[in-house]
Specification:
Number of strands of chain A: 17
Order of helices and strands of chain B: HEHHEEHHEHHEEHEEHEHEHHEEHH
CATH architecture of the largest domain in chain B: Orthogonal Bundle
Strand order of the largest sheet of chain B: 1-3-2
Number of helices of chain A: 29
InterPro entries (chain A): POLR3C_WHD, RNA_pol_III_RPC82-rel_HTH, RNA_pol_III_Rpc82_C, RPC3, WH-like_DNA-bd_sf
Shape of chain A: globular
Distance between the termini of chain A: 21 Å
Strand content of chain B: 5-15%
Oligomer: heterodimer
Number of domains of chain A: 4
Subunit structure (chain A): Component of the RNA polymerase III (Pol III) complex consisting of 17 subunits.
Function (chain A): DNA-dependent RNA polymerase catalyzes the transcription of DNA into RNA using the four ribonucleoside triphosphates as substrates. Specific core component of RNA polymerase III which synthesizes small RNAs, such as 5S rRNA and tRNAs.
Largest sheet of chain A: 3 strands, antiparallel
Radius of gyration of chain B: 39 Å
Pfam family, one (chain A): RNA_pol_Rpc82
Number of domains of chain B: 4
Shape of chain B: elongated
Helix content of chain B: 40-55%
Radius of gyration of chain A: 28 Å
Structural class of chain B: alpha+beta
Number of helices of chain B: 14
GO cellular component, one term (chain A): RNA polymerase III complex
Chain lengths: 675, 358
């Protein structure tokens, strides 16, 4: 079963809070019944809750639309069972971040489309087109409302996580139905800043035609951010396993149940292969039809920039052609891609903290380049590694996962001062400059950092990458000399380091003693394995008495375990080994569950804070007051409103930062079997 | 008469003999003392000195020396041999009681490894009180010393006064009196840091590359104004002053990273550690400890400083920055009840709001 699909009580609580927050009480009630009772049929659901069957069906529709639950309707049509998709349910917390990532990578318009797709759940292309460009007849407008019932729920509740404009096209598109035109109150501060910056470019955000909408969707599909909806996506892990097993037995073992290790192994491989095939199918982008550009399209002026962004494997339509997607194609956002983007962000932040600003920017450029070809962080259905590692070493690396310094030099933000953080003597050498370094360490005459040849830039960048590669985390690994120097990024190894780093950071945040010695102790145990007190003292070069108190503190916090092994038959303290050990997987689990709990508490607190200002909020959200707060609210009320927004912002920001911890601990590599 | 005279002569002869023997003993002792201290004498060495006339006499002489504690009988490769003691030591030893001598013998045998009191008791079959009494008197006579064992912190080990305790019981150069010498470790590790820094890093001043960009920017701005379409114009970034206004430490261009051996050489040449021998393995122990502390980074067999950018504030992670991450009652906190998110004092403090009063 998937590592993230395991359900724990605290995760269930967290997801219930998220669902209630975004999709309202009804959906949350149904969700919570499923969370408590596990996989259920519709009639069992009826029995287990106080809701009537009509309400339950409404709730299920919302949950299914958002892919928050699996159902087996496609394989057992009469008594389909429903079960929660925990990964997707937890993914609700990442919605705001998804939009930000899309905006950073593909611009405002793409973010706008993504935002609507997330709000609507999975959507037919046709519905999305209609939502953007509603037909002007009354009937079809009301029909659309019915189709998107989920949206009504989301709106009514004032979602906290889908931030930015939910109005289909912002304020610019006056034809959008009024109910879609509200601008959400809740948004973290960074979003707000971004908004301020782009205020004058609102016009730019507007998608002007169906053709442009289609091309944006197509582009996001090529990049893997949007995937098509397939019936297999609705199968729970158990159902999927059953189906693939059946197929594997048919194809590998001629329909007989496997006997003996050899057959069983062959079938196991067959299952994994089949699962991979099914999953990879989701990512296939259906070839769109094209039509000639007509005079009506002439104003859509897709910028040159977008075409360049599309990357080498992208099929960019010719200038006189327009992409037309199949109107019956159903699409949804791809949460796995979001995790990949999140990994990029986390790695870049970490490099910024540990190595420096310029190396971090260089690293970001490298990672973004690989990102387009990375559908997921790790393959949970990968074949087990072969027994002999020699064969692994010979395996060539896919060229799409390699980055050369020269490519980075071409793609990196040109306003970055690449000279920063390097030895001036080295700078002079690497730029082949006629300048020299004087006694004080200054370069005379100074070098213009923004007017360097591509070769010089590649050399400088290579130096920065070397710095990243030499860090104990091995953020990059040298691969070959192609393109000045070619690098690959060994994600599985880095993921382990990240987990370790996260655990260490958490330990360091304890008291003064843990900060000073706890981290050292954990590192010593990680390096040496189980140790007794005396060996511990030798490795840490500290008196045993001092170590004892550190060990006690960490044992209480659950990061370190102690073990007693008797040397003689009697179990006596004097005649026993007392070992101290540290299990990374156990510490990882512990920290993960604690982080979930921290998120739950933060959201509960936010709920409480909201209750305390409920009256004020009701007033501020009245349609006549909203937008004219200064006019209708007293000074005290304005103050309180401002404070509430500050509180909300702070808590939500913290929740999203805790989400980063969860991502590091859970999403970047599978369970660690042996430490 | 003859018998009388014989009788009278016999004691005189014996006296003479004993004087002669005493002389010979002294001669033999002096002969041996000429050799460097600590030399082992085998039978052939002693007979080569030609003090005794025959083997029997030699045996008598040596036995006499041993009895006077001037010689210590030993075996080397199964062959008996002897070692010389100084006259003062012998004097002290002669004054010991038999029990004390027995203990001394056992302690002597243990040499630099030392011997545990309990082991002494087992070997001598003496009562603990007697052992303690004798050991105390031996200590008072400056013959033995007691050392705390590093391996077994509760054990008191005894060894001869003039011996230096072996590493097994006294620990390496970083330990003194059975425990790690934190002050020494601290000082040496700091010096190591300085040495590595001097060797592999350069300090870069803030204005090291004082390129005047105003002209280029003006040019670009002009270009932008001239450009018809915003899309075609080169991006103009506002000039921001260099991020660093303090000198910063960066790795030099082609650093020669030091190894444990090269660092050890420098430490020794600085002459800051006296009376202690540091070996390469001791140095590695210290350096690896510094790696654990996050002060150094190990690359292959070489070490370098763990340079952290100074301009980035070291943020904790999202979990521990929130009140829950460091909450003392985190495990007691529930969805409702006395300790919950609604009543949390830490949240109240963090957000600057009021909590529900229970």
């Amino acid at each position: 079963m998937s590592y993230a699909q395991r359900e724990t009580p605290i995760l269930a609580e967290l997801c219930e809070l998220l669902v209630e927050d975004i999709y309202g009480e009804l959906a949350a009630r149904v969700f919570s019944v499923l969370a408590r009772h596990g996989r259920q049929t519709l009639s069992a659901l009826n029995k287990a809750s106080y809701l009537n069957s009509r309400q339950i069906k409404h709730g299920l529709v919302v949950l299914i639309q958002q892919h928050l639950i699996f159902h087996s309707a496609s394989i057992e049509p009469h008594a389909a069972s429903y079960e929660i998709d925990w990964q997707q349910a937890y993914g609700l917390v990442r919605y705001g971040r998804t939009l930000k990532s899309v905006e950073e990578r593909f611009g405002d318009k793409a973010a706008n489309v993504m935002s609507n797709l997330i709000t609507l759940g999975h959507t037919r292309i046709q519905d999305l087109r209609e939502a953007y460009f509603p037909p002007h007849t009354e009937e079809s407008a009301s029909g659309e409302e019915g189709a998107n019932g989920a949206l009504g729920d989301a709106k009514a509740n004032g979602s906290l996580f889908v931030n930015g404009d939910t109005g289909m096209n912002g304020h610019a598109n006056g034809t959008a139905p009024p109910k879609l035109n509200g601008v959400k109150r809740a948004r973290p501060s960074d979003e707000e800043e971004v908004d301020g910056e782009y205020e004058d470019r609102v016009e730019d955000k507007t998608i002007k035609s169906v053709a442009e909408l289609d091309s944006i969707i197509y582009h996001l599909m090529l990049q893997g951010w949007i995937v098509k909806v397939e019936w297999t996506q609705y199968l729970g892990p158990g159902d999927l396993h059953d189906i693939t097993r059946q197929e594997a037995i048919e194809s590998v073992n001629e329909g007989k149940l496997p006997h003996g290790t050899k057959e069983k192994e062959a079938v196991a491989y067959g299952i994994l292969r089949r699962k991979r095939e099914i999953r990879d199918e989701w990512l296939n982008v259906p070839q769109p039809t094209t039509r000639k550009r007509t005079s009506a399209d002439s104003d859509l002026s897709r910028s040159n920039k977008r075409q360049r962004l599309a990357g080498p494997n992208n099929w960019a339509p010719r200038d006189d052609e327009v992409i037309v997607l199949d109107e019956n194609l159903t699409i949804r956002a791809n949460p796995e891609k979001m995790t990949v983007a999140l990994r990029t962000d986390i790695l870049v932040r970490l490099v910024r903290q540990l190595v420096g600003h310029v190396p971090a920017t260089v690293y970001e450029t490298m990672l973004r380049q690989i990102e387009a070809n990375t559908p997921r962080c790790y393959d949970e259905w990968a074949d087990p590694p072969p027994a002999d590692t020699a064969a692994m070493a010979n395996e060539s690396v896919d060229a799409r996962f390699l980055v050369t310094s020269r490519e980075v030099a071409k793609n990196i933000d040109p306003s970055i001062d690449l000279l920063e953080g390097l030895d001036p003597h080295g700078i002079v050498l690497m730029t082949y400059s006629t300048s020299h370094v004087d006694k004080k360490g200054n370069i005379v005459p100074p070098i213009d950092p923004f007017n360097l040849s591509v070769d010089a830039r590649a050399r400088l960048i290579d130096k920065h990458i070397t710095a990243i590669a030499n860090h104990p985390f091995r953020f990059a690994t040298w691969h070959s000399r192609a393109g000045f120097s070619q690098w690959r990024i060994d994600f599985p190894e880095i993921a382990l380091s990240l987990i370790q780093h996260e655990i260490e950071t958490t330990i360091a945040a304890g008291n003064e003693r843990d900060k000073k010695y706890g981290v050292k102790l954990i590192r010593a145990l990680k390096k040496k394995g189980k140790l007794d007190e005396r060996q511990m003292g030798n490795v840490m070069m500290m008196p045993a008495a001092e170590i004892r108190s550190v060990v006690n503190g960490l044992t209480v916090r659950g990061f370190v375990q102690t073990q007693e092994i008797p040397k003689v038959e009697r179990r006596e303290a004097k005649h026993s080994f007392h070992l101290i050990w540290y299990d990374r997987q156990r510490a990882r689990e512990k920290l993960l569950q604690d982080t979930y709990k921290g998120m739950v508490r933060a959201l509960q607190r936010l709920k409480y804070e909201k209750e305390t200002v409920a009256g004020l909020l009701a007033k501020a959200e009245r349609t006549d007051v909203a937008g004219n707060e200064e006019r209708w609210l007293s000074k005290g009320e304005l103050e309180a409103l401002k404070k509430w927004r500050g509180v909300q912002e702070k808590v939500l920001l913290q929740v999203s930062r805790m989400d980063e911890v969860v991502a590091v601990l859970r999403d970047f590599c599978g369970p660690l079997v042996s430490v | 008469m003859a018998t009388d005279s014989q009788r009278a002569a016999a004691p005189a002869g014996e006296a003479l003999d004993s004087v002669l023997q005493q002389n010979k003993i002294d001669v033999l002792y002096d002969q041996c003392a000429k050799a460097p201290q600590g030399t082992l004498f085998f039978q052939r060495d002693l007979s080569n000195m030609a003090v005794a006339e025959n083997l029997n006499e030699l045996i008598v002489l040596v036995q006499e020396l041993v009895d006077m504690q001037l010689m210590k009988p030993m075996t080397f490769d199964g062959e008996p041999c002897w070692k010389l003691r100084t006259r003062q030591d012998a004097e002290k030893l002669r004054k010991l009681t038999s029990e004390e001598r027995l203990l001394y013998h056992h302690i002597d045998q243990a040499q630099a490894e030392g011997i545990w009191t309990k082991a002494l008791r087992l070997r001598t079959n003496m009562t603990p009180q007697a052992v303690n009494k004798c050991l105390k008197s031996l200590e008072n006579k400056d013959l033995v010393q007691s050392v705390m064992s590093v391996k077994f912190p509760a054990r008191k080990m005894y060894l001869l006064k003039h011996l230096r305790p072996s590493e097994d019981i006294a620990g390496g150069p970083w330990q003194s009196e059975g425990d790690f010498d934190m002050a020494l470790i601290d000082t040496v590790s700091r010096i190591v840091e300085q040495l590595i820094q001097k060797e592999t890093c350069v300090t870069v001043q803030p204005g090291y590359n004082n390129y005047d960009r105003s002209e280029a920017i003006a040019q670009k701005k002009a270009q932008r104004r001239a450009a018809q379409d915003i899309e075609d114009a080169p991006a103009v970034k506002p000039y921001h002053p260099p991020r660093h206004n303090k000198p910063r430490l960066v790795l030099s261009h082609d650093p020669k990273l030091p190894t444990a051996a090269s660092l050890l050489e420098q430490i020794i040449s600085l002459g800051i550690i006296r009376d202690k021998v540091i070996r390469e393995s001791d140095m590695e122990q210290l350096l690896d400890m510094m790696v654990l502390e996050g002060r150094l980074e190990k690359i292959g067999a070489t070490y370098r400083l763990a340079l952290r950018p100074s301009d980035v504030e070291e943020g904790m992670n999202g979990f521990v920055d929130a009140p829950c991450g460091t909450c003392p009652v985190f495990d007691l906190c529930g969805d409702s009840g006395e300790i919950s998110a609604r009543t949390c004092v830490y949240f109240a403090e963090w957000l600057g709001t009021e909590s529900e009063v229970v």
